[in-house]
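My main concern about presentation is that the manuscript never shows what a single data entry looks like. An entry of this sort, consisting of the sequence and the corresponding backbone structure tokens, reads as follows:
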Amino acid sequence: MTTEKLEATLNEFLHEITIIKTNWIIWNGLREEMQEGAKYEKLLEYSPCFWTVTLNNLLSKTLLGTAKLYDEHKDCLGLQKLINICDQNQTLFPKSHAIIHTNGYTGEQIPYEVQKDICANIKEAREKYQSVQNFRSQLITLRDKHLAHLDKSTFLNAKELYREVALKKEALEKLFETAAGIANSFLSCLSNNVVYTEFHNVDDYQILLTYIKEGKKAYLQRIKPRTNKKS
């Protein structure tokens, strides 16, 4: 393992988390905008097939993607494997990073060092990983019995499985935020960088909803029956 490869691995892992969070944010946003009494509640009535499939796919992508982050199979690069890789390659992590601070008033550049402790990072990462054990178990159950496999015991009643497992939204968010925190702590220790795991334009679905609603008004106006004026 080289420093460059480890840094690339951490960055790619964080990119996967960003994609997962994006699906989650859009799913939550669309549901909120189209719920009863909301601004775009009628859109679900206009195109029920499209929106139902879209929402289901966004949620499935979030659940399955998060499950991949915590996959403990020996051939998979899950969070546990990532922690082990960093543990086995501690010599790649510098003990400090040189930083140049520029005084905003005088323009003077002041060098200083940021101390890093990879041993403490690894210990904290393992503790955080263990802290979400119950959430991990719930999610892996959903993955094994429905998301990744068509388990014969739950095939005809998947809704009952989700009620029994009862993985809450807060628990799911805790899982991918924990993964992001651990991966970023290692990246910071390695290169003094972190990745912001959210696209700046993640809410641009609002533009789409606006265009759809305005387009619907224009369409209804265009097909409105014309009445003959009396001469």
Remarks:
- The longest strand covers residues 96-102.
- Strands lie at 96-102, 109-115.
- The CA atoms of residues 62 and 186 lie 24 Å apart.
